[in-house]
């Protein structure tokens, strides 16, 4: 079965039809840049462009980079326009897509669900935490495979700062940090999360998961196992489609 998966991020809106049996993209993904400011209207236009690129007319699963409650209401907007707060995202996207059935889930939760099913978290019990390092830091917490949604661990306070402002990959780029310097910050962040949750496994996701050989060796002294995500930057798209399939039936 195929469902369209679409990942809305701080820099790009990317999507593709997803083969749910294989947990992989059925076609090459298509991406448009996230508009700035990333208002509901502008983002919805980008979503429409990506879906129309494929002439898709079936169900669409979307991710959103903020807290999503009740499967539709946006509660936070750290890296997109603040006018998202309290938006009924499902209604907005469905209307813009000519009435196609849509579902909306937090981006890190979607990536986590995909990794637990098809990637680095397969068959892993106990407490598993996936962290995505991108424009912000997203988190997905699993206990014996079950997701605790909307955990928002990227906003833990670390040395008086919002953690994602210091340890996201955007912070690395903005401050032109070396991999070693940035890894040092990620290490402090992981130590803090470990102190709170004692997970068995950390899965490192987001664009940096492809470059784990450049920084994971700098991170020492964390008791949990630390592995890169396996679906890499497609985990959000795959997880969005999985979420839609679950809601569909
Ligand atoms: C948001 C999270 C999101 C993460 C990654 C954070 O700023 O609050 O909801 O998962 O960025 O996009």
From TrEMBL:
Among Pfam families, the record links this protein to: ROK (PF00480)
Matching entries from InterPro entries are given as: ATPase_NBD, ROK
Q: Which domain of life is it from?
A: Bacteria
Name the Gene3D superfamilies on file: 3.30.420.40
User: Record's family?
Assistant: Belongs to the ROK (NagC/XylR) family.
Q: This chain belongs to which protein, by name?
A: ROK family protein
Native species of this protein? Streptomyces cyaneochromogenes
Upper classification of the source organism reads:
Bacteria, Bacillati, Actinomycetota, Actinomycetes, Kitasatosporales
């Amino acid at each position: 079965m195929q469902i369209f998966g679409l990942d809305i991020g701080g820099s790009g809106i990317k999507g593709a039809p997803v083969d749910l049996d294989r947990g992989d993209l059925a076609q090459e993904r298509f991406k448009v840049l996230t508009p700035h400011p990333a208002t509901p209207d502008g983002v919805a236009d980008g979503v429409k462009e990506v879906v129309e690129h494929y002439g898709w007319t079936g169900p669409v699963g979307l991710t959103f980079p903020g807290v999503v409650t009740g499967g539709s209401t946006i509660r936070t907007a750290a890296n997109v326009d603040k006018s998202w707060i309290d938006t009924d995202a499902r209604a907005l996207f469905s209307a813009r897509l000519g009435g196609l059935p849509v579902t909306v889930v937090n981006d890190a939760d979607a990536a986590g669900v995909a990794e637990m099913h098809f990637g680095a978290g397969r068959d892993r019990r106990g407490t598993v935490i996936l962290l995505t390092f991108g424009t912000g830091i997203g988190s997905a917490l699993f206990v014996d495979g079950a997701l605790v949604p909307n955990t928002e661990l990227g906003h833990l306070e670390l040395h008086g700062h919002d953690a994602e402002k210091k340890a996201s990959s955007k912070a690395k780029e903005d401050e032109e940090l070396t991999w070693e310097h940035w890894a040092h910050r990620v290490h402090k962040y992981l130590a803090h999360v470990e102190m709170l949750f004692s997970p068995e496994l950390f899965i490192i996701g987001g664009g940096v998961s492809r470059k784990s050989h450049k920084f994971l060796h700098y991170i020492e002294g964390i008791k949990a196992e630390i592995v890169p995500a396996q679906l890499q930057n497609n985990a959000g798209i795959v997880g969005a489609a999985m979420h839609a399939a679950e809601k569909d039936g």
